[in-house]
């Protein structure tokens, strides 16, 4: 009996924290780099998408709501499929920083590759090649001109 209790305690101690570090389920898109699963706000790690009210400008100089479009693109990609996120800690707003995927496709990587986000504050170079491809192909926000989301937030 004592041996069974010890094994049960060890299993729960080892498995417990790992389970708490992942979140999975149906996601609601809050904006281009934030989702919500089971009431938990999750900030997609390593990317920065335009804010919902942020404008970008097409080649003719006309403003368009690129932040809103980024959120719609993310929502369309997720398409009610289950999302799995591995926690990378919390940000200053107490949101989970999540490395999230749908069908083994990274949401952060997809947003970068499709031009709806930029690598977050140059802290992580794993998305630089994807950002370069989006820029060359003029996808998403790269189709015209835009202010980096971090700079836009500072002024607005």
UniProtKB/TrEMBL annotation:
Residues 29-144 form the TNase-like domain. Residues 1-20 form the signal peptide. Pfam families: SNase. SUPFAM superfamilies: Staphylococcal nuclease. Keywords: Signal. This is Thermonuclease family protein.
